[in-house]
Amino acid sequence: MSSAQKPRVLPPPAALPPLGPLVIVDGECAYFPEEARPSRTAFALPGPLSQREYQTAMSLGMRRSGTLVYRPVCPGCRRCQPFRLAVNDFAPSRSQRRVQKKADGHFTVDVVRPVVDATHMALYARYQAFQHGKDGQHSDEESYARFLVDTVADTWELAWRDKAGALVGVGIIDVVEDGISSVYFYWDPRLEDFSLGVYSALWEIDLCRRWNKPYYYLGYLVPGSRTMSYKSQYAGGEVWTGTAWVPVPGRDLDDPAMQLALRGAQLASTDADATNFPVDGVPVESGS
To answer: For the domain that residue 169 is a member of, what is the CATH number?
Structure first.
């Protein structure tokens, strides 16, 4: 292996030693493939994290996927902004209220630990084919478990059922001390008219209220990305600056005030990442 191929390894951020060492991986940005943008990600593979520890990871701008915890630290770019809602400041838009009115009373939701079985796999495969086509996630049990069942956090499944008791949707959430973090949601394509993606978010926001959790974490807001920009439509949003969560004005990503707030967060988080994930100060290992 050449020196260019050897990964850089960082110690964990001082605020969270249980993460263990982080490996830096370079690649291409999945959110803007048409721009051929380079990406750089710091990955950790910790053991189980407590609610407080995973909340600390999110306060460093990190997220998890399966048992990996990661932070995008792309050179010259921080368009991936951690985004959450202050639940008490959230008010649904007119279109969101219409979705809620149409779907209310049609479904029940059971809160259980994540499982993988034939029913889940059949629903997941239909959703992937409908929503993503050839770009969908692999629908075998091993890949599903690695993506949605294996975890280092306090993870729960929201099993959505219709009036006949059939499984029609599955949400995966992580619970931390101050909130609920939405991981993934998939649903039966035959129920497209119910806009279950929107309705499930509204349901999870209400779950935050019922569990006395003040924040609802939606992962990364990525302005300009077709798949990640929708999150701004949920009012009461806050973005992470590297040291604090700050409110963002309104829902419109094209609004100058919103753009100013996001640019400020991007600049501040770049400075914070230089301390928490000092990639440039760690040389690639030499050797053959």
So the answer is: 3.40.630
In this predicted structure, what is the pLDDT of residue 135? 61
Would you say residue 232 lies in a domain? no
Q: Is residue 165 part of a domain?
A: yes
Separation between Cα atoms, residue 261 and residue 187, nearest integer Å: 34
CA dist 251 → 26, 122, 231, 242 (Å): 32, 35, 9, 22
Element (H, E) at 131: helix 118-132
pTM for the model stands at 0.91
174 in Cβ contact with 183 (< 8 Å): yes
Q: Are 274 and 40 in contact (CB under 8 A)?
A: no
**Comparing C-alpha atoms, which of 88, 87, 61 is closest to residue 245?**
61
Residues across the chain: 288
Share of the chain above pLDDT 70, in %: 93
Asked if residue 86 is part of any domain, the answer here is no
In this predicted model, what pLDDT tens digit does every residue of 114-169 receive, in sequence order? 999 999 999 999 999 998 776 656 678 999 999 999 999 999 999 999 999 999 99
Give the total number of structural domains in the chain. Answer: 1
pLDDT over 50 at 1, yes or no: no
Residue 193: which domain range?
A: 94-210
Q: 42 φ, ψ to 5°?
A: -95, 120
68-72 sheet: strands from edge to edge: 8-10, 22-28, 38-44, 68-72, 63-65
Does residue 25 lie within any of the structural domains? no
| Vertex 175: Cα angle to 115 and 221 (nearest 5) | 100
The average pLDDT across 256-270 equals 90
